[in-house]
Amino acid sequence: MSYPYQIASLEQYHADYKKSVDDPEGFWGSIAENFEWRKKHDKVLEWNFTEPKVEWFKGAKLNITENCIDRHLKTMADKPAIIWEPNNPEERVRIVTYARLHKRVCQVAQMLVNNGVKKGDRVCIYMGMVPELAYAILGCARIGAIHSVIFGGFSAQSIADRLYDAQAEFIITCDGAYRGAKDIPLKSVIDDALIGNRTVKKVFVYTRTRIPVSMLKGRDLWWEDEMEYAETQVEKDGVVSFPAVEMDAEDPLFILYTSGSTGKPKGVVHSSAGYMVWTNYTFVNVFQYQPGQVHFCTADIGWITGHSYIVYGPLSAGGTSLMFEGVPTYPDAGRFWDIVDRHKVNILYTAPTAIRSLMGFGLDPLKGKDLSSLKILGTVGEPINEEAWHWYDEHIGKKKCPIVDTWWQTENGGVLISNLAGITPSKPSWATLPMPGVQPILVDENGKEVTEKDEHGMLKGNLCIKAPWPSILRTTYGDHERCRINYFATYPNLYFTGDGALKDADGNYRITGRVDDVLNVSGHRIGTAEVENAINMHAGVVESAVVGYPHDIKGQGIYAYVIYGHMHGDAEHTKKDILQTVTRVIGAIAKPDKIQFVTGLPKTRSGKIMRRILRKIAEGEMTNLGDTSALLDPTVVEEIKNGKL
Ligand code: PRX
Q1: Are 138 and 311 in contact (CB under 8 A)?
Q2: Which residue of 28, 117, 398, 521 has the fewest C-beta atoms within 10 A of its own C-beta?
Q3: Which atom of ligand 1 is nearest to the CA of 525?
Q4: At 512, phi and psi to the nearest 5?
Q5: What contacts 115, CB < 8 A, 6 or more positions away?
Q6: How confident is the model at residue 544 (pLDDT cuts 50, 70, 90)?
Q7: Whether 345 and 440 share a structural domain
Q8: What is the dihedral of CA 142, 144, 145, 150, to 10 degrees?
Q9: 63 lies in a domain?
Q10: Ligand 1 atom with least separation from CA of 410
């Protein structure tokens, strides 16, 4: 497979960028020719950001799995689609060829149909990082069922909320998952999530850890049994087939829940055609992927990065995607480097948090590891500090591998701002230039374009995008108004990212972080309101306020100020009780790093918490707290300052 749309020079980037802005329909219409359609589009793009309504490749018919699998079978049936590296390095690596992937995905599709799953039904997937997770996703896509993957770190309560919001009728899970030294009892969490649930009809259980699980008659099914039966249906005389269901370009492909500034996570909906085109286009261009290369994205498929750059992007490009079940520090901090060495990884795409944490182990874990196969490095999920960038460049890339700093969001589907590896210049800790089709704009609080440079010659403002790219979110599941208010109402006719950014004289962007009440902890997105809700559910908590603070490894840590009533035990016990409650309500990923008990919170006369002050104190800024004259009771600030952790 070759990629005629792969950008080969800086000049071509500028020319393509210009074309994509001057004539988006012509530009994306010609990119679309590189995919397999059951029927071509009637119109490339129709949109307005007021409703909002965005339609790409209108009238086209397709199935994304035919683009990710079937079209590669003629020439690449025996080539690896997925290389699976298990948590335990002693266990057998699995190499899944395109032919095998095709068979497994056909089996899953058949298994789902056998059990009553139809196009448009929501299937929740809660699994560890096993190849079966990729089969499950693609099996859903093959029959047009809408998958909604939930990260394995979320609690039963979080799952229950998402199941309810999506009105999901089916679940695919595992008995358990291995993560480093831990065994996570996934099915048991699902059982808890299903207490009182009225929509879920069937739960498919894949066996991974073989811990004891409860299996309810009529509801719970063993994946292996169902797949075995499906195999007899999809394979006849050695020929495997399960006809993919024809999808409209705008039919939803999946829902992925993500945190916002309000308490309840939103179900971001992505469409079939636009998402396919964008993940493929960005995969091929950002990473400058060459056929045959091994691409290792270390994200979990529970997040958007895994969806786009483990599954859909690499597979639609006929690539080889390395999927890793474990964690970077198990059995030791050399695990990534061992994987790179053994599998001759060419592209490594990871998070700044992982880099910072591995840096902390020094250079010993790198000893004896041959990293010479690496050609390109990437980062995603949070701003990368210069120190980590240089360490990555020097010790992993040996100063020979371009680093792509890719900025994007769950709502975007794929990379929006990034350098193109080896093609456009990199700049440490800058995401740099927009992808073709992406038109960023920096605005002030009133939505006016920022035109005045600061003392360093930079423009500084809130990052918005002026026009739709193919994989912009289409809605938030079940609540379109929420989508409009969250992303399209802050500034009329603009998509608002929630991030702040700088722009230099060469047009490069540096993302400075969220300007709303969303935290980025180890690259995981968590709303402060969500954490506050969870803390407030703990008996005894009167009120709480949660802010972020700089954390050496995680990027941001969670700092909670809590007003507490009568304590059952001492303060340290009470803190642990609160952490336990947060773990139950959201999951361990949302546990505050610091809890400070206070007797009051800084509020205005109208009762609004002045988070700015709390944020500054959490950051260690004690003197320059800004204007506190609006506070109802300024003495509480002194108390909070004195008790800072
Ligand atoms: O603040 C930005 C940060 O992560 C947020 C999006 O989080 P999520 O939807 O979970 O998606 C993460 C993976 C795509 C953004 O609003 N972010 C993401 N990438 C970068 C980044 N911040 C700085 N630099 C990046 N490269």
Answers
A1: yes
A2: 398
A3: 10
A4: -100, -10
A5: 170, 202, 204, 221, 226
A6: very high
A7: yes
A8: 70
A9: yes
A10: 9
Closest CA to 174 of 189, 158, 187: 187
- Report how far residue 211's alpha carbon sits from residue 574's, in angstroms, rounded to the nearest whole number: 32
Query: Looking at 480, 498, 516, which one is the last position of a domain?
Result: 498
**Do 331 and 408 belong together in one domain?**
yes
Residue-wise pLDDT tens digits, 251-269? 999 999 999 887 789 999 9
Rounded distance between C-alpha atoms, residue 372 and residue 362, angstroms:
19
pLDDT at 378: 98
- 110 found inside a domain: no
Structure tokens at 96: 């899944």
Whole-number Å distance between alpha carbons of 6 and 494: 29
Q: Which domain holds residue 401?
A: 1-68+271-498
Instruction: State pLDDT tens for residues 54-97.
Output: 999 999 999 999 999 999 999 999 999 999 999 999 999 999 99
Are residues 553 and 427 part of one domain? Answer: no
Question: How many structural domains is the chain composed of?
Answer: 2
Those residues with Cβ within 8 angstroms of residue 541's Cβ, 6 or more apart along the chain or in another chain: 535, 562, 563, 564, 565, 578
> What pLDDT sits at residue 634?
87
Would 225 be classed as within a structural domain? Answer: no
- For the range 186-189, what are the long-range contacts, defined as Cβ-Cβ under 8 Å and sequence gap of 24 or more? 186/126, 186/127, 186/128, 186/152, 187/213, 187/214, 188/213, 188/214, 189/126, 189/155, 189/156, 189/159
Residue 191 within any structural domain of the chain: no
Residues 395 and 531 in one domain: no
Query: In terms of domains, do 609 and 548 share one?
Result: yes
Domain shared by 314 and 450, yes or no: yes
407 CA to centre of ligand 1 in angstroms: 6
Q: Are 117 and 170 in contact (CB under 8 A)?
A: yes
- Residue 589: which CATH number? 3.30.300.30
Rounded to the nearest 10°, the torsion over CA 372, 378, 383, 385 is 10
Cβ–Cβ < 8 Å for 132, 124: no
Residue 2 has pLDDT above 90, yes or no: no
Structure tokens at 138: 């693609």
Biggest alpha carbon distance in the chain? 81
Name residues contacting ligand 1 (CB within 6 A). 258, 304-305, 380-383, 405-410, 431, 497-499, 511, 513-514, 520, 525
Ligand 1 pocket test: pick from 266, 404, 408, 556 the residue with the most ligand atoms within 8 Å of its Cβ. Answer: 408
In three-state secondary structure terms, 312 is helix
Asked whether 234 and 244 are in contact (CB, 8 A), the reply is no
Please indicate, yes or no, whether residues 582 and 462 belong to a single structural domain of this protein.
Answer: no
Is the backbone of residue 540 left (phi > 0), alpha (psi -120 to 50) or beta? left
Residue 576 Cα to chain centre, angstroms:
29
Is the same domain home to 480 and 582?
Answer: no
Q: What is the CATH number of the domain that holds 309?
A: 3.40.50.12780
Residues 6+ apart with CB under 8 A from 466: 439, 440, 441, 493, 494, 495
